Amino acid sequence: MHNELFKIGPITIYGYGLMIALGIIAAYFCAVHLAKKTKLNPDPVINILIVGVLFGFLGSKILYYITIFDEVIKDPTILLDVANGFVVYGGIIAGIAASAVYCKIKKLPFLGYLDCAAPAIALAQGFGRIGCFLAGCCYGVEMDSPISITFKNSAIAPNNIPLFPSQLVSSGLDFINFALLYFIARRNKRAGLVGALYLGFYSVGRFVIEFFRGDIERGSVGALSTSQFISIFTAAAGIALAIFLLKTEQKEKAEGGAAPALETGDPEAVPAPETGDPESASEAEEKGNIAEKPENNENTENSENSEE
Predict the structure, then answer these.
(1) Closest among 112, 117, 116, 60 to 89, alpha carbons compared
(2) Of 15, 98, 240, 303, which one's alpha carbon is 20 to 30 angstroms from that of 143?
(3) Could you tell me which residues come within 8 angstroms of residue 231 by beta carbon, excluding any fewer than 6 positions away?
């Protein structure tokens, strides 16, 4: 694959950069669309996107430098190469955290906007992985199969060797993740659930695809790659948040269901005036007796007169 797609005068258009740009643009329109559908103000989306992208870029670079810390110590000039080397999880974590802080400062409903952003992030990742394919990074393990791909003049991936198409498979998983999350977001009523599902879906897919990655500079934690290690915690966080939100919803429904006890015939739930309360009945009887007293006195007088 050729990363250099074409030139416009002195400007070279690279496939990786183009796909990243398309992904960000698509993510913005997707998030705005979902904000409108879920009755959120779409105006803050652009600012949240800018904050998320900037800190996402910073976080992905920092985590990448951490994974190659030994090389950085040996050659600090590596830090000057800001155009190459990213770890997606660093971007996800930093981008979400920065967006949460921004929403806190601006007093915006973070979980609501996270639900709009989650499908958009998955969509952007789908485009981004196509960019990885064009650039030759994030390549797969050697595999001689009908679906294998062979790079001929890549500056990153090994050339003339059949490889598992990890970038394209990752892209497909990201687009599937986007479709599922978008479908759920259109119908979701529990703020934060879509964001939680994004963490769960992406983490599981990333954990599996890492077994088929051939680039060894990703770093490792024991027998796991750095991304697999992080996937365990992000998946657990997503699952835990989803369970918490669903249980909260069930609890609220249960409490809401207890309120219509007036229709169940529960004697404790029926208002006293409608139950024939003895005290109320006594008061009514006393009032009735008072109203009848004049008539009784008149009858008494008549009775006495007739006797006389």
Answers:
(1) 60
(2) 15
(3) 89, 203, 204, 206, 207, 210
Dump pLDDT digits (tens) for 226-235: 899 999 999 9
Cα 267 to the chain's mean position, in Å? 45
Query: Does residue 307 belong to any structural domain of this protein?
Result: no
**Dihedrals φ, ψ of 173, to 5°?**
-65, -40
Tokens 């009887």 belong to 285
Q: Which residue has the higher pLDDT, 257 or 101?
A: 101
Write the secondary structure of 136-178 as one string of H (helix), E (strand) and C (coil).
CCCCECECCCCCCEEECCCCCCCECCEECCHHHHHHHHHHHHH
Per the structure, the count of domains in the chain is: 1
Q: What range defines the domain where residue 69 resides?
A: 4-255
pLDDT tens for 266-287 read 434 444 444 445 444 445 455 4
Please identify which residue in the block is written with the tokens 């952007």. Answer: 124
Contact 196/204 with Cβ under 8 angstroms? no
Q: Note whether residue 216 is domain-resident.
A: yes
